[in-house]
Write a structure and sequence with these properties.
alpha+beta, Alpha-Beta Plaits, elongated
């Protein structure tokens, strides 16, 4: 199949199940909303080493938040269900509680199975920072706490929901050079940014360090995806790159639902193929050995 003259491979991306929480952070203005979001989702690219895959879902106008202030929705994807509560609480406690003027609320809005959603403690645990000066409040239709801090009070919902989602949705943009391929990847991420219930956790939404399972070093579980490294084309026998293909970027996303993943793939690919210099679109998979969620490129583009 070709789209705008670009080859679309008949292959699939392979994703896996992951637990996640979706949190709304508000602040006095958009500047501090963005600062809180950036800090809270930092070091959140890959669960290979990070405690969570984290990122910005969407920004929320003031008239759509519980406290009528501008906000941002953050998502945290965590492979171990037992660790979800502590990881989310730690990130909020270290990065949002500390950030000027912020407040924090649950924002879960769908998952793979509503019946398997569960609750985690956020304000119910963070309140102890108040050293018995914290107070339960009834301003909202849910339990919340106000914790005295040096610029006033930190308002935080007592409990947040968590659910099961999909992590590792992806596609590969293969181009003639770094400049055009990067532009295509940037356009893809821009096209995806308004998809609800979805994050692109890698820097700018783009990964240059695609990985394979395993390594020649026994202590590593993952290592560079050498068949897709252009500088290795003449050095290895299993290169997947063709003549003239000199750059590969992977756009990776995590979603609350399969619909979000498939929508992101479609929008991102359609945006990428419009950039001159893009030669081929493919996807990262591990022969079906990594995850049970498989999305064929041709199917999602229909």
């Amino acid at each position: 199949m070709e789209l705008n003259g670009v080859e679309i491979e008949d292959t699939y991306c392979e994703a896996f199940g992951s637990f996640f929480s979706r949190i709304l952070v508000t602040a006095i203005n958009e500047k501090w909303v963005r600062i809180a979001a950036q800090i809270a989702t930092g070091y959140g690219t890959s669960t290979i080493h990070c405690d969570a895959e984290a990122g910005i879902d969407v920004f929320v106008p003031a008239d759509k938040t519980p406290d009528n202030r501008p906000g941002v929705i953050l998502m945290f994807f965590i492979s171990d269900k037992k660790k979800v509560g502590n990881i989310v609480m730690n990130r909020l406690g270290q990065c949002v509680l500390t950030c000027p003027t912020t407040a924090c609320f649950d924002a879960l809005n769908g998952s793979l199975d509503a019946e398997k959603e569960f609750e985690i403690k956020i304000g119910a645990n963070l309140r102890y920072f108040g050293d018995k000066f914290e107070e339960k409040i009834e301003t909202y239709p849910f339990e919340a706490w106000k914790i005295p801090v040096m610029d006033g009070e930190f308002i935080v919902q007592s409990m947040a929901k968590a659910g099961k989602g999909v992590a590792g949705g992806n596609f590969l943009i293969i181009g003639k050079d770094q400049e055009s391929t990067l532009e295509a990847a940037e356009k893809s991420v821009e096209a995806i940014k308004d998809v609800i219930n979805l994050i692109t956790p890698f820097p700018g939404g783009i990964a240059r360090s695609g990985s394979k399972v395993g390594s020649k070093y026994s202590f590593l579980h993952a290592s560079t995806n050498d068949p897709l490294c252009p500088t290795l084309k003449g050095k290895i026998d299993n290169s997947l790159l063709k003549e003239g293909e000199e750059c590969v970027y992977e756009v990776i996303f995590d979603g609350a639902t399969e619909e979000a993943i498939k929508q992101a793939m479609k929008l991102g690919i359609e945006a990428a193929v419009k950039i001159p210099g893009v030669l081929r679109i493919s996807a990262g998979n591990y022969g079906g050995k990594l995850g049970k969620f498989q999305y064929n490129l041709l199917d999602v583009l229909k």
